[in-house]
Each structure stands twice: as C-alpha cells, then as structure tokens.
Write a structure and sequence with these properties.
The protein is an alpha/beta fold and 290 residues long. The protein is 43% helix and 10% strand. The protein has a six-stranded parallel sheet, covered by helices on one side. InterPro entries: AKR_Detox_Biosynth, NAD(P)_OxRdtase_dom_sf, NADP_OxRdtase_dom.
C-alpha cells in the first residue's frame, strides 16, 4: 500500500468482516507498511494479533533483532508484537544465538512468541531441540510458501516453500504454519497464467501447476465457487494449524478471498487436486473427487 488513505478502507473492511490478525515486516515498503498499519491501529480500539518480521538480509543476524524490533514497535505504535519471525535464516549462525536473541525480547516484554520465515524444517527442528534443552519456548510458528501451486523457483532470494510432507510433519509437531503467497500470487485468478507478469510465470507457471489449476477449475465449477477459493480452501484443509497469509490489494479481492472460508473440501478432493494424471470429469460429482 502506498499510503494510509489507500490502505485504511481495506483494513477497515478486513476488521469489519472479522479479521483479527495482521502480518507485516520491517522491510516491507522500506518501512511504509508498518507505518501505515501503525496509523490505522492508532485510530482503532480493537488491536489485532500482530505478526512482525525482522533480520532480513543483508542484516540477517541476531544482533539486528533488538534494533529492528525497536524501530518496528515505534512505527506500529505498540509496546509488544504478538509473534515475531526471523525473516530469513542465516545458516552460518548457530541456532543457540538466534534463540538467545529472541528469548531476550520475550523477557523484555517486547514480543510474546517467536518463529521463523523462510527457514528449512531441518533448522526449525534444530532451533526447537536447543530451546527444549535450554528451557526456552522455541519457534511456535513458521511462515514459508505453501499453496496448491508448487513454487518452481524462489520468488525472491532465500525464499523457502513447504511441501506436503513438511505440512504433515509440522502439523504433528504443533508448530503453527503461516504460509505466504497462499493463493500463489494470482496463479488461480481468472487471468490466463500465460498473461501473468514474467516473475509470477517464472515461479508458478509449470505444466504440473497448470494441471492443478485445471482440477481447481473443475472443482469450482462442480461446487459453484471460484477457482481461487478452491486454491485457498486447499491450504486450509491441510492437516496442520494453518493460518494462510493473503495479500489483497482491493476490497473486492478481500471479499473474494474470504469466501474460501465457506468452502469445505473432503480429504478425497484434497488428494485429487494434487494427483498426477489426467482429469476425469466423471469422478467429480458434487465434490469434484474420486
């Protein structure tokens, strides 16, 4: 969002429709996003759950956490961020140093809990193993990419995606998942994938994803909804504590996205959407599954 005037109606609409969580980061819009959210928060009595992020490259180190968090709190006009995520991993840094830096902010009352964004599941397990031994909380949340369309190439350097096996494993661990680009940045919109901007095509326009899009289209037709709602419903149907991050730019896009909350996909349909092979419409029925 380029200004408070542009963002406020969208944030108002989100809150009016029951939205209770906002995701932002130190680097978004070179600080403008946090500033705009802070302006909006100051004019609203109900403060949503805030998810913040910091320590993005080139300052991806534990020493940056306290400094960037101070700036974020000032921009947002709050004393504490509910969940603070390390925006990228730096594998050269021992997990002990990350945990100690984040625990210091919990002890100071400046964050309530912490996690990672674009961290491998291997590093997450290492973080939480160290945290258990140190009687610390560890990562309670992980925000990587996950959607019905698999990310063929990283959207930006250092971006990490969940796969279906990761979701199952993390679901069993109790770590909350906050998948970003959960609608694959418009890949499931009404726009032909071939007409998306080159960066989007580079990341998601593969034959496998086009097949998944066709299955989502067939499911949407059979259930009387939209393809993009099926894509988001697929994420919500995963066997984990899923809190998909969406990025609507207009109130219309927001309303469309929230309709996915009314779509329930059976386990058979969820499996069918990602199955390799041709589409057999005779299998669709009312649930678009075998």
């Amino acid at each position: 969002m380029r200004s408070y005037e542009q963002a406020a109606p969208l944030l108002d609409s989100y809150a009016a429709q029951g939205g209770t969580c906002l995701d932002t980061a130190f680097v978004y819009g070179q600080g403008l996003c946090e500033t705009v959210v802070g302006q909006w928060l100051r004019k609203n009595s109900s403060v949503p759950v805030l998810v913040g992020k910091g320590a993005h490259p080139p300052r991806c180190d534990p020493e940056s956490v306290a400094e960037e968090l101070s700036v974020s709190l000032d921009r947002l006009g709050v004393d504490r961020i509910d969940i603070y995520l390390v925006h990228r991993d730096n594998p050269q840094v021992p997990v002990s140093e990350w945990v100690e830096a984040l625990e210091a902010q919990v002890a100071a009352g400046r964050i309530s809990a912490y996690g990672g964004s674009n961290w491998s599941t291997t590093r997450l397990r290492a973080v939480n193993a160290y945290a258990r031994a140190a009687a610390a909380a560890g990562f309670v949340a992980l925000s990587n990419h996950f959607s019905l369309a698999q990310m063929a190439e990283p959207l930006y350097p250092g971006c990490v995606a969940f796969d279906e096996d990761d979701v199952v494993t993390l679901g069993q661990s109790g770590v909350a998942l906050l998948p970003w680009a959960s609608q694959a940045r418009g890949f499931f919109s009404d726009t032909d994938p071939g007409l998306l901007d080159p960066n989007m095509r580079r990341c998601w326009d593969t034959e496998r994803n086009r097949q998944r899009r066709r299955r989502a289209e067939a499911t949407a037709t059979a259930t009387g909804t939209r393809t993009i709602n099926i894509a988001l419903a697929f994420v919500l149907a995963q066997p984990a504590s899923m809190f998909p991050v969406i990025g609507p730019r207009t109130e219309t896009e927001l309303r469309v996205a929230l309709k996915a909350l009314d779509v329930e996909l059976s386990p058979d349909v969820v499996r069918w959407l990602v199955r390799d092979g041709g589409i057999h419409h005779a299998h669709l029925g009312n649930e678009a599954g075998p």
